[in-house]
Amino acid sequence: MASALQFISDFLGYGANVVLPVIMFILCLALGMKWTKALGAGLLLGIAFTGMNILFGFAFPALQGAGQAMIARFPTHPLPAFDLGWTVASVISWAWPYAVFMFPLQIVINVIMLWAGWTQCLNVDMWNVWHKATLGAFVSALLKDSFLGEGGALAMGFLVAAIWVVLELISADYTREQVYNLTKIPGIAVSHNMLLDIIWMAPILDLIEKIPGIEKIKTSPADFRRRFGILGENYILGAILGLIFGLLAGFNLKDIATLVVSCAAILTIFPMMAGLFARALAPVAEGAQEFMQKRFPGKAFYVGLDWPVLGGVDALWVTGIIAAPFILVFAAILPYNIVLPFGSIIAVSLIATTTVLAQGDVVKSSILAIIGIPVYLGAASYFAPYLTDLAKSTGVFETLAKDAQGYGMVTWLETNAAGMRLMVFSIIDMFNGHLALGAVSIVVLAFCGWYYVRAMKRRENAAAAASGGIAGNPRPYADAPAGAAD
Amino acid sequence: MPVKRIIVACGSGVATSNVAAEKLRNLLRERGIQAEVRAVDMKSLESEARLADLLVSITPYASRDNELPIPVLSGIPLLTGVGVGPLIDKIAEMTK
């Protein structure tokens, strides 16, 4: 018995690229999958991790060379944390040993809330359970030295993840008319946690709408997107950023050209690796989906989906292209920022949120996004050490582990619901004795939460009035004013 | 021309499209339909469409853009589970 336990504990130390496939294999068998398919899913996970590691080995030295040269030229404002995009963050999050437990957590909470009538959203987006894994992992890392102890810290991690699941469902309920007005797809909602940041954006948008003449500016985002559409392609973005970094680093022509191609390659190949991950997780996602749909046949609900249902809204991509240069400028001037923007230069989690709230109005959406960039840079800076430590703990990313001077962190600028996360983490940090910031956050959150419900009822009504309403009801919240902005 | 190569597009070509593509693969296999299914990034659709016969899109984007040389079906049923049967029937018809 003792030797069996010893074997398991040894095995868990072998690294995520070996351990995860085995966990995945067992999970798939438990879900009743054929063993050949289960084996395939497990192996794909291992392959995705291995591929990520190879890429890290390529990407990190390439970016570090440019990063260190930039720091040598601009020593007062070092940017040691590389934004490698959400694809990388999602893969790293699965290395948290408790990540798979986020599936049952999300499903159980959703079932209870549907059963009790607290939500109408059936969240079938099983891909984005990884966000809950990052919360669990980061909260337990933040509190591991507090009086709660490691067990208490882990429990808090699960508690915050559970709260997140609840908030996502409420947010999906309160945005579904706005989403419907943009997409015209009936029966769906967006249950992605990015939309939680509407809680602090809603009062700001109300202020923006008070600017005289702002409603009169006419734009045609479709033309803009068609003309600049190619800018949105990953490899073009990578090449442009490589060029900017190379020039800032003072490289010679050969080094600039090399960096341009390297950066284009990094931004093209990372998503491919993450795609392997998605394929490996697809059977689990499907199994969970079927499980939930079988339990709620015929009951009226909206199906909660990931953000790509919004991908057809031209204003989203136009906002992204407008916001991108501001991300670079803010990164260069904000004193607290340590992030070198790269993989999330089109910051979907920010621009999709502003697009939903601004209902496809490019001007309002862009102003909101620009206001949001400092928040997102703040979150990406704050969470960089946490994601880096988690990546190192996988035992896979040798490049990170070998980085002796500590220069070079990994982060993602698209920290979803960045403002919410920062507020929640400052509140949790009160357990470590840091009270002041947390107290401010509690006050701000309380105000925003109160405002949110009122603002959403008003905006849901306005969206329903514009579209005719999902269920043919142009005024779903009879207790709120029907007008657009008051 | 019978459909042999199907692409499934989402906003990043990573998550949603792969999940939907995997589901489509299984559904087609169950019906004994021979077709290659690939997940792609909607931002690269113009180049991807040249290597495919049918687009199943998670976003309403492509159905509005008439520039694509291939037919487009909505992939939303693959995510919500509502209307999967008719979608597969339609694809089955197109593969003949």
Structural description of this entry:
The complex is a heterodimer of chains A (486) and B (96). Chain A is mainly alpha-helical and 486 residues long. Chain A is 67% helix and 4% strand. Chain A has 17 helices and six strands. Chain A has helices at residues 2-12, 16-30, 35-73, 86-93, 102-116, 129-143, 149-183, 198-208, 221-228, 234-249, 253-295, 314-333, 348-357, 362-393, 398-401, 418-428, 436-467, and strands at 81-83, 121-123, 188-190, 302-305, 339-340, 409-411. In chain A, the strands form two sheets. Chain A has a three-stranded parallel beta sheet with strand order 5-1-6. The longest helix of chain A is centred in the middle third of the chain and has 43 residues, at 253-295. Chain B has helices at residues 16-30, 45-48, 61-64, 76-80, 84-94; strands at 5-10, 36-41, 54-57, 72-74. The model of chain B has no long low-confidence stretch (mean pLDDT 85).
How much is the average pLDDT of chain B? Answer: 85
- What count of helical segments of chain A does DSSP give? 17
Low-confidence stretches of chain B: none
Q: Mind telling me the CATH class of chain B?
A: Alpha Beta
| Uncertain segments of chain A | none
Number of domains of chain A: 1
Rg measurement of chain B, Å: 12 Å
N-to-C span of chain B: 8 Å
- What is the typical, i.e. mean, pLDDT of chain A? 87
The helix content of chain A is 55-70%
Q: Helix content range of the residues of chain B, please?
A: 40-55%
End-to-end C-alpha gap of chain A: 69 Å
When the domains of chain B are counted, the total is 1
Label the CATH architecture of chain B.
3-Layer(aba) Sandwich
In a nutshell, what does this entry contain?
The complex is a heterodimer of chains A (486) and B (96). Chain A has 486 residues and is mainly α.
Question: What labels would you give this structure?
Answer:
heterodimer; A: about 475 residues; mainly alpha; three-stranded parallel β-sheet; 17 helices; 6 strands; B: about 100 residues; alpha/beta; Rossmann fold; four-stranded parallel β-sheet; 5 helices; 4 strands; about 40% helix; about 20% strand; globular
